[in-house]
Amino acid sequence: MSLSRLSQLTIVLSALFAALALTIKSGLTDNLEEPAIHSILAMRSNALTGLIQGVTFMTSAAPALALCTAWSVMAYRRSGDALKSAWPLLAYFGHLVCNIALRVAMGRWPPDVDHIPNLLPEFQASFQQFAFPSGHAGAALVAYGALALLARDFGRYQQPALVLAAAVTLATGFGRVYLGVHWPSDVLGGWLLAAAWLSVARAWRRYNSSVRRSPVADR
Fold first, then answer.
1. How crowded is residue 173: how many other Cβ atoms within 10 Å of its Cβ?
2. Which of 7, 27, 82, 138 sits at a 20 to 30 Å CA gap from 35?
3. Average pLDDT for residues 133-148, to the nearest whole number?
4. Rounded to an integer, what distance in angstroms lies between the CA atom of residue 134 and that of residue 182?
């Protein structure tokens, strides 16, 4: 994908996120989402809860950071260019900073239902009391989406990486509602924000690649 198309994709994803945020802020989504939430809560079982808690840990902040760091190291070993190879970390930290700021700015409370705690303790901060956008959903898309993109760059294991990324991302999104900590639109917002940052990061990678190849840069 060319740099211009990546830029256009970033604009489209950002516009969709902004439209979703404005719709949520207006209060138009709450009544529409409640039936979906209760349908998902009715699916709770001990086995499914254990699976969802495991996926939740895999997509929490520390594991997602570790994965993005590993993808950046792998890219660096292949290219030898630190700036070009750091795109997974750029996507991770860009998404993280925006997620924190937007949660505070939106101030949206999670649904008023019984929630299931995490299997293992996680870092807790005051901004996490707010629900939009979902940090876990976004972290899943950033970390495992970066894996799928990296596999495409390497030209190997593209299909398994894409299947894994889709499975973990969808399971995480479902799990955030299943555990009772997010509205479905929080999950969608997390995915849109993460996809926008992946697009920014890929544009950063392509820009650095083009600068390195430019005759002007060699003078």
1. 25
2. 138
3. 95
4. 7
Residue 189 · residue 132 · CB < 8 Å: yes
Please, are residues 161 and 218 in contact by the beta-carbon 8 Å criterion?
Answer: no
Structure tokens at 208: 């650095």
CB 197 within 8 A of CB 95: yes
SS3 14: helix
Q: Are 181 and 130 within 8 A, CB to CB? A: no
3, amino acid identity: L
* Cα→Cα distances 8→2, 3, 81, 110, 146, Å: 10, 9, 26, 32, 19
Tell me the average pLDDT across 81-101: 92
pLDDT of residue 219: 37
Segment (H or E) for 41:
helix 30-41
User: Mean pLDDT over residues 6-20, rounded?
Assistant: 90
Whole-number average pLDDT of the chain: 87
pTM (predicted TM-score): 0.89
- pLDDT of residue 176 exceeding 90, the answer is yes
- How would you label 143-171 residue by residue, b for 16+ Cβ within 10 Å and e otherwise? bbbbbbbbbeeeeeeeeebbeebeebbbb
CA atoms within 13 A on the CB side of 31: 3
3-class DSSP assignment, residue 98: helix
Kindly tell me if the per-residue pLDDT of 124 is higher than 90.
no
Q: Which two tokens stand for residue 2?
A: 């060319």
At 210, the amino acid letter reads S
